[in-house]
Amino acid sequence: MKLETLSCVVKGKLDLDIITQQIEYDENNQDQTLVQITRGGICGSDLHYYQHGKVGNFEVKHPMILGHEVIGKVVKTNDPKLYVGQKVAINPGKPCLKCKYCLSGDINQCETMRFFGSAMYNPHVDGGFTQYKVVDNAQCIDYPQNASDDVMAFAEPLAVTIHAAKQAGDLSGKKVFISGVGPIGCLVVAAVKALGASEIVCADMSERCLDLALEMGATKTFHAASGDFTPYLAHKGYFDVSFEAAGHPSSIERCLAITRARGILIQVGMGGAVPEFNVMPLIAKEISWKGSFRFIEEFNTSVEWLSTGKVNPLPLLSKVVNFKDFKAALDLAGNKNEIAKVQLSFE
Asked: Which family would the database say this protein is a member of (predicted)?
């Protein structure tokens, strides 16, 4: 079965296009499903590919379909657990299932992970900002038909934050600090609240982001530059767990300062090199500093939480834009002063 699909591609820095492609689905294939994409959230990495033509060292070498926060409807499948018209969230990661990390269950550390919308390999791995896409059956996570597209398109970013939250262990009754409450930081707020945190304090440079953090469940917020954090410095720190989601050296230093001795710091923000970093608080207070990368089974957890209303991400949804206005949507998403999350509609 062959069909045409319109795809949103990046060709390089500030160079976007919508192109017509031919895709083929083998109706006898027992392992793959043809999905009609209905909605896709624009992520920071999509913006980086657009604004800079690369993410880190991964540079766009040829047209690549963007997008990894996508949901859709089943068009064709041989999977007995799915049916035509079934709504699904699409897990954007395709691990090899053969390397030592996959075999031990740490599939987010797969040595040859193929993740939607990534220029890590050449040819690149196309993403989900397209009308139709062939995916592995295992990437399709079904959810109730009455669940809102607005809500379910948050499945991937929420999964990232549930994974981050679980790096800290049991959060029941814990005092939590979150530095940086953009969309990911705000979803960390929702995740730690759902996992039982008793106190959730947030800091950011943006009053708009701080207001959103309160809507998502924060108990208190501080402006990162002018807030008084002095009460949290006494007795070698106050918070049991801190989440650094800004990726800035000053943010990391604050987290270390106000996390209690033998507390935990989860690194979520991707800020690159940290110049002239003072490691003494980390050493002297015996803080456990842990990275958090993507997700494993948390994608399924995220789909469940969203479809049952355990987490409501809608305060973060700023705008839904038709995919044919792809460039305008990315420009809008880049306006961090006014915009939290922008989604593309493919219907």
From this structure: Belongs to the zinc-containing alcohol dehydrogenase family.
Look at the pTM and tell me if it is higher than 0.90. yes
Q: How many structural domains is the chain composed of?
A: 2
- Each residue of 204-218: pLDDT tens digit? 999 999 999 999 999
Mapped onto helix, strand or coil, the DSSP state of residue 268 is coil
Which residues, at least 6 apart from 154, have a Cβ–Cβ distance to it below 8 Å? 41, 69, 187, 302, 306, 313, 316, 341
Instruction: Report yes or no: 259 and 285 within 8 Å, Cβ to Cβ.
Output: yes
- Which amino acid is it at 6? L
Q: Are residues 225 and 319 in the same domain?
A: no
Are 323 and 246 members of one domain? no
**What whole-number distance in Å separates Cα of residue 56 and Cα of residue 195?**
32
Contacts of 346 (CB under 8 A, 6+ apart): 36, 37, 38, 39, 40, 72, 130, 131, 323
On whether the CB atoms of residues 39 and 153 are closer than 8 A, the answer is yes
Is 183 contained in some domain?
Answer: yes
Q: Clarify whether residues 190 and 227 are in a common domain.
A: yes
